[in-house]
Specification:
The complex is a heterodimer of chains A (83) and B (1032). With 83 residues, chain A is α+β, with helices and mostly antiparallel strands. Chain A has 2 helices and 4 strands, in the order βαββαβ. Chain B is elongated. Chain B starts with a helix and ends with a helix. Classes of the chains: A alpha+beta (83), B alpha/beta (1032).
């Protein structure tokens, strides 16, 4: 499985309600398409978000976003570099 | 005939629109009506110079008035009074229309057009100089009337056009003076100041400064431009700016002058800090106020006091004195101010006035009853009704008055909103005979522009309870004493003469030791003097603060501007020292006077204002959920910042908040404004959703109340229902029918109302059924695409189809999934028909992603069907849709399909290789496997066996890497066929052996995979027989 990054921006800022709704919509899609959500980082102003996934290819990650109606700007394959 | 000539000359009317509105007859200024709305109307009639229907003018200026035609009549009377009754230039009006008529009316706009006819670049230098001098300020300065939405839009559009023309003139002037850099510098500076967001002005200024050898000043200008671009636009320096900087000659460094940008140091007098001036004059008014307080102490003061006068005349200062007097006799006061930018903020005055109450002032029960006004955060609103809220305020005031007289002081009544005015009137009526005194201030002339204020005053006058104090200019001796109380002035008489008894102007002139020319706008000139003494950072902060209105919250200002809090603190101190602002409350500041704020705001160019308002709106938006009472503020800034979607969304929040605090008129008003903004939203589905939410507020806010003017028409709701239908927003459709039933019910049309109620119920059922159908079909479609559990997918899609059918609708997911299943089963014609239906539905719903995916599937099926021309047509459609969507993999897929189709017809093309590289880069392994398999099949048919083998091997690797069993089987089958074609019987046999039991388990694999295996098996058996036959 490859490591993927999804970048998102929100205007207006992402509310807790919207975050919960998207998370709920995405859960079954992730399972069905065998995509693993690793973690997400939400900026303090709630206007930017970076999510990490593991999946078979980038298109599957994009597809899951669309299926769950989750807003995103771009998806790219990343190499994990840790300290 | 000299007399006749003179008479004609007297009739000549010159209207100046580029700056504050000004009318001159025979070179003498005419006194304009005090009402801003009336002045704006006069200007509108002059600029448009044509006949207007009364209804059109009412819509522009009095949309929110109870009797718009009466408002128009009143304003026309004021204009007639200004123009005089016997001139040949006059208002010509009949029952239907209005026009400003006269042969000898000229405007500065007309002159500007004459001077720049044929374009600024072709105009002579003299013409350009004259044209530039016509701009005394921005178009109709101070008359944009944000509360008159349609007029405001017109005014801003005209203002932007005039501003662009001004820029062109200044730019042309700089170019005209290329032989005279000193003169060019004057115009370049004006250009850079006029619109700091236009890099051309900065570039010209840097270039001219460079030409003059003032390299340090040029570099400072470069730095300033970079700062502005980074802070306000989030951009790096524009390319042209870098080029201008690079062109600054090093050789000229030696001539670097002493005029480089320096931070001016405030002079000692300016930084001396504000000293509260002693109250001077108004002896008669003070005595009357004292008498009122005396009467109020025993509950005998029936009168409500109104202090009126022109801006700066000292109304608020007199109210300060009243507050001091009431405190001196052991009483207390509640004071609040109405703000122009908050005319839709429900109970704005009362929220501010009650904010100062301490826990110990009232029993707990009373505090609880006041919660909707004192705890305005999202969790603070309690259930109740408007009457209970009004009673709670009256009870609280009565309670406070038990321990001494109470004064309720209202600043700027001319900007009060309806709910505050209604509560004020209720309190005035209910508290008659108690020690509660009410005192109001308002601008003469502008009170008539505000229907809520006017109604309140009319009701008070009718019940003979209104006592007016019309504040006159200070007498000369009082004016001299006031000037002497703040500074030692060399020529006090000159200042006294110039200020004409206006205390604000007297004080400002005395503080700045200013010498404003007669022709200049006095306060603008005074502000310029202040600004020349400010550091650039403080001046910039002032620009930002002015966009908030009279008061501004510190945290929002700093966050919106993106400044550094420590630095901002220093800059605020600097502004305080210049007495431009004062602390207001614990967390904010206020301009020392509205006129100072207006003068500061008028200095900010229109594009920059838009940017500042946008930034403020976006900052406030972050807390919209937590502070719903701020929604109207967000809508205000978002509207001025051109952020229509945010403005409409904030209007929904403002309307809902209004409903919660029983401010129905404000709620309906907020919704009406929101609908105007929603009309600008390009995303039609988003617009349909917001329209319905706003209409709901309008209907609920006006239901059962005499607010018919604000109630939406049934036709408007029907249009919104149609739009929601078109975008398949079934919940909104149901909502729309419900609203329709309320509107018909209110109109007494009970049969129609009942029909609408039934439609609402049906739409609601439909919405539920459709949501369920979509969910089922979506799950089914995902299973088919993954090639898993096809039996379950069939069951799900049947259930989804039944639900959609019973609801009488077509659902894109159902048609798409059925198409994929037909494709799975090998019914290619039927599959194309179903997926085509899905494409139509997705296109209608503007669902671009589903539209692209369906188009891609159909295009691939056309290739499978051996129809290259149809595949090319589909690929072309896909390419267009993919470009709109911006999805990474769809455009290369379209390119690949087109290339495959062309290869199918025998055309040689290298496009396939290019497309495959792009598909790999987009990392779409599933469709890449599919494309490679199709390429292998085509090559096999064209007897390019080795190439076919390469494609098939690549497809197999790709399919196996992602577990795409069907594509893997198809690739293996192709490889078997390649081996057969090359006569490799053993290889074919071995590969066939590796294949899963495709034909043995019917339905487990797609028809495409099964068909490929069947063909491969036949071929392998044939070659095997051929090889083993002779051996046997």
């Amino acid at each position: 499985m490859q490591h993927f990054i999804v970048e998102r921006t929100f205007s207006p800022p992402l509310s807790d309600q919207d975050l919960s709704a998207v998370t709920a919509r995405m859960a079954p899609c992730l399972e069905l398409h065998q995509v693993r959500w690793v973690r997400s980082h939400l900026s303090g102003d709630r206007q930017r978000m970076v999510c990490e996934y593991e999946a078979r290819d980038a298109e599957t990650v994009r597809k899951v976003q669309h299926e769950a109606n989750a807003k995103f700007d771009r998806v790219w394959a990343g190499q994990l570099i840790e300290p | 005939m000299p007399t006749t000539a003179k008479a004609l000359s007297c009739q000549h009317l010159q209207i100046s629109l580029l700056g504050e509105l000004r009318l001159c007859r025979d070179s003498r200024s005419l006194v304009l009506p005090a009402s801003r709305k009336t002045r704006a109307l006069l200007a509108y009639l002059a600029v448009t110079a044509k006949r207007h229907l009364r209804s059109e003018l009412c819509g522009l200026f009095w949309e929110d008035a109870a009797d718009p035609r009466a408002g128009l009549r009143w304003s026309l009377t004021q204009i007639r009074r200004t123009l005089g009754e016997h001139g040949s230039i006059a208002i010509r009006a009949d029952r239907e229309s209005v026009e400003l008529q006269g042969d000898r009316v000229t405007t500065d706009l007309d002159r500007l057009k004459q001077l720049t006819q044929g374009g600024c670049t072709k105009a002579s230098r003299d013409a350009l100089i004259e044209a530039s001098e016509l701009f005394r300020g921005e178009f109709l300065e101070g008359l944009d009337l944000a509360s008159c939405y349609a007029y405001h839009e017109w005014c801003i559009a005209e203002r932007e056009m005039a501003s662009r023309r001004h820029e062109q003139i200044l730019l042309a002037l700089v170019e005209h003076h290329s032989d005279d850099p000193e003169q060019a510098l004057v115009h370049a500076r004006a250009l850079a100041t006029h619109n700091p967001l236009n890099e051309r002005g900065h570039i010209q200024l840097i270039t001219v400064l460079g030409a003059l050898g003032r390299r340090r000043a040029a570099l400072a200008q470069y730095e300033q431009c970079c700062r502005i671009f980074e802070r306000e636009l989030g951009l790096g320096p524009p390319a042209g700016l870098e080029a201008a900087r690079a062109s600054l000659s090093v050789a000229r460094l030696a001539r670097s002058d002493g005029n480089a940008a320096s931070i001016s140091v405030p002079d000692a007098q300016a930084v001396a800090g504000r000293v509260r001036t002693r109250f001077i004059g108004r002896n008669e008014e003070i005595a009357q106020l004292a008498k009122s307080i005396e009467l109020a102490m025993t509950g005998q003061e029936r009168d409500v006091l109104l202090l009126s006068g022109v801006p700066g005349i000292g109304k608020s200062r007199l109210l300060d004195e009243l507050a001091s007097q009431i405190t001196a006799v052991g009483g207390r006061f509640l004071r609040g101010r109405a703000f122009e930018s908050e005319m839709v903020r429900p109970f704005g005055f009362w929220i501010d006035a009650l904010r100062g109450l301490r826990d110990s002032d009232l029993p707990k029960m009373m505090h609880a009853a006041l919660r909707p006004l004192t705890h305005t955060g999202s969790g603070g609103v309690t259930a109740g009704d408007r009457d209970s809220l009004f009673d709670a305020v009256v009870t609280a005031l009565s309670h406070l008055a038990r321990s001494g007289p109470v004064a309720v002081l209202v600043d700027d009544l001319h900007w009060i909103e309806a709910s505050s005015a209604a509560l004020l009137h209720y309190a005035m009526r209910s508290l008659t005979g108690t020690p509660v005194l009410f005192a109001l201030t308002g601008r003469a002339g502008e009170l008539e522009d505000n229907a809520a204020a006017q109604n309140l005053l009319a009701a008070l006058a009718q019940s003979r309870r209104l006592r007016r104090f019309a504040l006159e200019p200070l007498r000369d001796n009082e004016a001299r004493a006031l000037v002497g109380s703040v500074a030692q002035v060399a020529e006090p008489d000159r200042i006294v003469a110039q200020a004409q008894g206006n205390p604000l102007i007297l004080l400002e002139l005395a503080r700045t030791q200013n010498a404003a020319g007669e022709s200049a706008s006095l306060l603008g000139h005074i502000l310029e003097t202040h600004l020349s003494r400010l550091s650039p950072g403080a001046a910039e902060l002032l620009d930002w603060a002015s966009a908030f209105g009279r008061e501004f919250p510190l945290d929002v200002l700093i966050a919106a501007q993106g400044g550094e809090p420590g630095l901002a603190g220093q800059q605020l101190s600097e502004l305080e020292r210049h007495d431009l602002i004062r602390a207001a409350g614990d967390t904010g500041y206020a301009f020392s006077h509205d006129l100072i704020q207006q003068a500061a705001y008028s200095r900010v160019s229109q594009p920059r204002r838009r940017l500042i308002h946008k930034s403020i709106a976006m900052r406030l938006d972050r807390d919209m959920d937590a502070y719903p009472e701020r929604c109207s503020e967000i809508a205000h800034h978002a509207g001025l910042g051109g952020q229509h979607e945010l403005a409409a969304r904030a209007s929904v929040g403002a309307g809902e908040h209004g409903l919660r605090v029983f401010a129905n008129r404000e709620a309906a008003e907020a919704a009406r404004r929101g609908l105007r903004h929603a009309a600008h939203i390009p995303d039609q589905a988003a617009r349909a959703r917001l329209d319905m939410a706003l209409l709901r507020i309008q209907v609920l806010a006006t239901s059962g109340l005499p607010l018919a003017r604000l109630r939406p028409a049934a036709s408007a709701i029907m249009l919104a229902i149609d739009a929601a239908h078109a975008h398949r927003l079934h919940a909104e459709v149901a909502q729309g029918y419900y609203l329709l039933s309320v509107v018909h019910q209110e109109a007494g049309q009970f049969d129609v109302a009942q029909q609408a109620t039934l439609s609402a119920a049906q739409a609601s059922d439909l919405s539920d059924a459709l949501g369920r159908a979509r969910q089922l079909a979506n799950s089914a479609r995902c299973l088919v695409e993954l090639g898993r559990d096809i039996g379950r997918a069939r069951e799900l899609v049947v259930e989804a189809s039944t639900l959609a059918k019973s609801a009488g609708v077509h659902e894109v997911e159902v048609r798409w999934c059925r198409g994929l299943l037909l494709h799975w089963d090998g019914h290619l014609d039927l599959a194309v028909r179903e997926i085509d239906a899905a494409i139509v539905l997705a296109t209608a719903a503007e669902d671009r992603w589903r539209q692209c995916k369906c188009l891609a599937t159909v295009a691939m099926i056309e290739l499978e069907r051996g129809r290259p021309q149809q595949a090319i047509a589909r690929a072309t459609e896909l390419k267009l849709a993919a470009n709109r969507l911006g999805e990474a993999a769809d455009a290369p897929l379209a390119q690949a399909i087109e290339a495959l189709a062309r290869q199918m017809t025998g055309e040689e093309t290298s496009q396939l290789d290019v497309a495959i590289v792009k598909l790999r880069a987009a990392d779409d392994k599933s469709r890449l496997a599919c494309v490679l398999n199709l390429a292998a099949t085509i090559q096999l048919e064209q007897k390019n066996f080795k190439v076919a083998g390469t494609f098939a091997a690549d497809a197999l690797a790709m399919a196996e890497s992602i577990g795409e069993v069907n594509e893997a089987v198809a690739a293996q089958a192709t490889l078997v066929q390649v081996a057969v074609a090359l006569g490799d019987a053993e290889g074919a046999r071995l590969m066939l052996k590796k294949l899963p039991p495709v034909l043995e388990v019917p339905g487990a694999f797609s028809a495409k995979a099964a068909c490929a295996v069947k063909v491969a098996r036949v071929g392998a058996e044939r070659i095997s027989a051929a090889v083993s036959g002779p051996a046997e």
